[in-house]
Amino acid sequence: MDMNSSAASGYPELMTQCELIEYLRIPEVSTATHHGNVIDNLKRFHQLPCIHISKKPLYPLAAVRRWVEEKLQKERSV
Question: What are phi and psi of 27, to 5 degrees?
Fold first, then answer.
């Protein structure tokens, strides 16, 4: 895991839901009133990577980046 890449991106290695919403630009691309519901949907139906620490969901930046790349590859192949 390249610690410098996360520092350069301005996002921590483990993002909170609010940080993830900002990172994925959910307010810009979704008409949903509650952006947390979008994240819940992505976890449930699209295998968005998430870990829980003290019952709080955290999103590993490197895993989210890989997930985005995988989604991009799937869309390119359609």
Answer: -60, -25
Q: Which pTM was predicted? A: 0.84
Q: Please, what's the largest Cα pairwise distance for the chain?
A: 39
Question: Residue 78's pLDDT is what?
Answer: 76
Is 38 exposed, middle or buried, given 0-12, 13-18 or 19+ CB atoms closer than 10 A?
buried
Task: Report the mean per-residue pLDDT for the chain.
Answer: 91
What is the β-pairing status of strands 51-53 and 56-60?
A: antiparallel
Q: What is the DSSP string of 25-77?
A: THHHH---S-HHHHHHHHHHHH----EEETTEEEEEHHHHHHHHHHHHHHHHT
Residue 73, Cβ neighbours under 10 Å: how many? Answer: 9
